[in-house]
Amino acid sequence: MDDVLLKPFSKQDLILIIEKHSPKHRLKKEQPEKLMSKHILSEIIEPQMLESLLEIENDNQQGFVFELLDIFLNHAELKLAEVKLALKEKDRKKIRDIAHNLKGSSGNVGLTKISRLFADLQDCSTNADWTEIEQQLGDINFLYNQTKQNILKSKP
Predict the structure, then answer these.
(1) Which of 149, 56, 143, 68 is nearest to 110 (CA)?
(2) pTM (2 decimals)?
(3) How far, CA to CA in Å, does 101 sit from each of 89, 104, 122?
(4) What one-character DSSP code corresponds to residue 6?
(5) Which H/E stretch holds residue 88?
(6) Contact criterion met (CB below 8 Å) for 143 and 114
(7) What's the confidence (pLDDT) of residue 49?
(8) Which is more confidently placed, 86 or 61?
């Protein structure tokens, strides 16, 4: 760790930090529309977030977006296992806390559909019946597995 960037931060704040530590860093000069249309993840990641992530990715760090997605997938696997355990233990607070965590981490990498489902789980874990919570988890697991497969198929 060479620096600190506190939330909330802008794209420009992040770029300045990266440039500070990578003097040869340069952003891609292509039009964002061209980057978006030819990037294999354009169907998975929310377009504005993908554009921002691609602006960070430079020639020396190809695959940056996939690295972020790998980190998310590993994190989500662990947290979803914790949710299953919390469901067995009927621990609403733990489910709510994990859903909150996953809502943020999935949103941070532009996976807005699954982020919304985690937000719904966070909300319903407060007072919904257990059947509804299980239904919500089923929807999450389905979309998560579909997203994971799409990411893995997209890897170069």
Answers:
(1) 68
(2) 0.72
(3) 19, 5, 9
(4) P
(5) helix 64-88
(6) yes
(7) 84
(8) 86
Residue tagged 């909150």 (tokens): 100
How large is the C-alpha radius of gyration of the chain?
A: 18
Residue 72 has pLDDT above 80, yes or no: yes
- Please tell me what DSSP assigns to residue 42: G
Longest Cα pair distance anywhere in the chain, in angstroms? Answer: 55
* Dihedral sign computed on CA atoms, order 90, 93, 94, 96: positive
- Tens digits of residue pLDDT in 77-134: 999 999 999 999 999 999 999 999 999 999 999 999 999 999 999 999 988 899 999 9
User: Which whole-number Å values give the CA distances from 108 to 44, 114, 145, in the listed order?
Assistant: 13, 11, 18
- Tokens describing residue 6: 């506190």
Q: What is the structure's pLDDT at 28?
A: 43
Amino acid (one-letter) located at 3: D
Both tokens assigned to 31: 């039009």
Instruction: Report how far residue 45's alpha carbon sits from residue 48's, in angstroms, rounded to the nearest whole number.
Output: 8
Tell me: the pLDDT tens digits for 99-113? 999 999 999 999 999
> Token digits for 52?
């921002």
Token pair in block for residue 9: 């931060």
Q: In whole angstroms, how far apart are CA 29 and each of 10, 54, 112, 143?
A: 20, 11, 27, 34
Quote the tokens at residue 109. 């990498």
